[in-house]
């Protein structure tokens, strides 16, 4: 079996070949899970014990799909094998554990980030699947509105300020952040990132991995990087008051700061920062723009059908038939072979963009009227664009708005 315990790397195809010779059921079964997940291009694998059996589910295009249910007797050996691959304590069952390992499949490198938590019926395994060194798309290629892209790059040309990418977990914030980085990366810019973990490698950018065991978290690394003459600093995520305050202060002293934050939308991200204890004046002085996004399931172009029952849906979205401009509205069908009978193929970002107004009097702004400080391209506007382009359905827009 090709496993380097020190580097925690395995070649899945070589691994499978050796396993066939060794005929270890658990190893064969585990390998099959990884192979199927990669071929389905899922983002997460969930292995969950129950009272009499355990089940395996994967997240594909944002939806959880069940792959199967299995005899519970095989669960503990499988759990132990995952722990061994990650270098975790197989005897510890009372507290959560996390680890990671690298894999290779068809000459493509993958990262597997593992989280194990104790539940009523045993320890649950959650595995995030990340493809390393994959091609980074531009914002336009990701499907973001051209006008929003133009506004975003206007403020990215400035030498200072802070741009936040907001949204719930798993909605593509990191992918958008890397896309922006890839487009602004030039030989004349000193760009430094603080990440946990480093998900994509970009040539010409100084990328730093957090190490909590050594006390090198986001806030501590940020303080050090401020002495490194960086033009642009990227913080993987704003998680606490210290990181937020240091980042915002840096944005006022000649640094361009980019970061992500978990929140429902743009305005709620400002409120979340205030809840962390950040002063509202510091927020409004430092933040120049916020891009908030959700990922929507994209209609299969081969089998989508016309939606003739859209009037009630428009009312729910506070839209009128005038907003449709005599366009055809589509919805999902029962699916076809092209989309594996799901009715959807891939996901596309639904984006809201807040751009801070020029010459705004910040003394008159508080948390209740904070919208007055920004020009807003709303989620509804962007969603309507995607509906009129035939890329999403009104049902999908209603699911998120």
Please provide a written account of the structure.
There is one protein chain. The chain is of the alpha/beta class and 401 residues long. It is 31% helix and 30% strand. The strands form three sheets. It has an eight-stranded mixed beta sheet. Strand 1 (3-4) and strand 2 form a beta hairpin. The longest helix has 16 residues, at 25-40. The termini are far apart.
Rg, rounded, reads: 23 Å
Number of domains: 2
What is the residue-mean pLDDT, rounded to a whole number?
87
Largest sheet: 8 strands, mixed
CATH architecture of the largest domain: 3-Layer(aba) Sandwich
Structural class: alpha/beta
Number of strands: 18
Estimate the helix proportion, in percent: 25-40%
Strand order of the largest sheet: 1-2-6-7-8-3-4-5
Quick summary:
The chain is an alpha/beta fold.
List keywords for this structure.
401 residues; 2 domains; alpha/beta; disordered N terminus; Rossmann fold; eight-stranded mixed β-sheet; Beta-Lactamase
SSE blueprint:
Elements: E1 3-4, E2 9-11, H1 12-22, H2 25-40, E3 44-49, E4 53-60, E5 63-71, H3 75-86, E6 97-105, E7 108-119, E8 122-131, H4 139-142, H5 146-156, E9 161-167, H6 173-184, E10 191-195, E11 206-209, H7 218-225, E12 232-235, H8 241-251, E13 256-262, H9 266-275, H10 280-286, E14 287-299, E15 305-306, H11 311-316, E16 330-331, E17 344-356, E18 374-377, H12 379-388, H13 394-400
Parallel strand pairs: 2-6, 9-13, 9-14, 10-11, 10-12, 12-13
Antiparallel strand pairs: 1-2, 3-4, 3-8, 4-5, 6-7, 7-8, 14-17, 15-16, 17-18
Helix pairs in contact: 1-2, 2-3, 7-8, 8-10
């Amino acid at each position: 079996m090709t496993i380097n315990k020190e580097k925690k790397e395995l070649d899945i195809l070589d691994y499978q070949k050796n396993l066939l010779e060794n005929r270890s059921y658990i190893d064969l079964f585990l390998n099959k899970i990884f192979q199927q997940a990669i071929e389905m291009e899922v983002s997460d694998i969930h292995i969950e014990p129950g009272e009499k059996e355990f089940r395996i589910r994967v997240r594909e295009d944002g939806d959880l799909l069940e792959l199967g249910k299995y005899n519970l007797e095989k669960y503990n050996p499988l759990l132990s094998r995952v722990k061994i691959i990650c270098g975790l304590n197989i005897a510890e069952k009372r507290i959560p554990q996390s680890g990671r390992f690298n894999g290779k499949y068809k000459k493509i490198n993958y990262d597997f980030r593992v989280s194990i938590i104790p539940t009523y019926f045993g320890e649950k395994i959650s595995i995030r699947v990340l493809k390393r060194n994959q091609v980074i798309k531009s914002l336009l290629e990701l499907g973001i509105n051209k006008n929003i892209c133009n506004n975003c790059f206007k403020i990215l040309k400035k030498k200072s300020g802070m741009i936040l990418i907001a949204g719930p977990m798993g909605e593509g914030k990191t992918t958008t952040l890397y896309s922006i980085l890839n487009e602004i990366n030039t030989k004349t810019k000193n760009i430094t990132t603080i990440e946990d973990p480093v998900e994509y490698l970009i040539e010409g950018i100084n990328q730093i991995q957090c190490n909590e065991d050594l006390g090198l978290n986001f806030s501590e690394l940020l303080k050090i990087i401020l002495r490194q003459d960086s033009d642009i600093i990227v913080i993987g995520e704003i998680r606490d008051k210290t990181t937020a305050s240091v980042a915002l202060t840096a944005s006022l002293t000649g640094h361009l700061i980019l970061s992500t934050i978990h929140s429902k939308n743009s305005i709620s991200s400002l409120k979340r920062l205030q809840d962390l204890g950040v002063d509202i004046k510091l927020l409004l002085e430092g933040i120049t723009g916020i891009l908030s996004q959700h990922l929507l399931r994209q209609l299969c172009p081969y089998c989508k059908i016309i939606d003739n029952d859209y009037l009630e849906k428009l009312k729910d979205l506070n839209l009128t038939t005038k907003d449709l401009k005599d366009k055809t509205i589509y919805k999902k069908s029962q699916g076809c072979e092209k989309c594996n009978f799901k009715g959807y193929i891939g996901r596309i970002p639904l984006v809201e963009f807040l751009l801070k107004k020029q010459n705004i009097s910040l003394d008159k702004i508080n948390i209740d009227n904070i919208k007055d400080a920004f020009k807003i391209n709303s989620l509804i506007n962007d969603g309507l664009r995607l509906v009129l382009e035939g890329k999403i359905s009104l049902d999908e827009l209603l699911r998120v708005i």
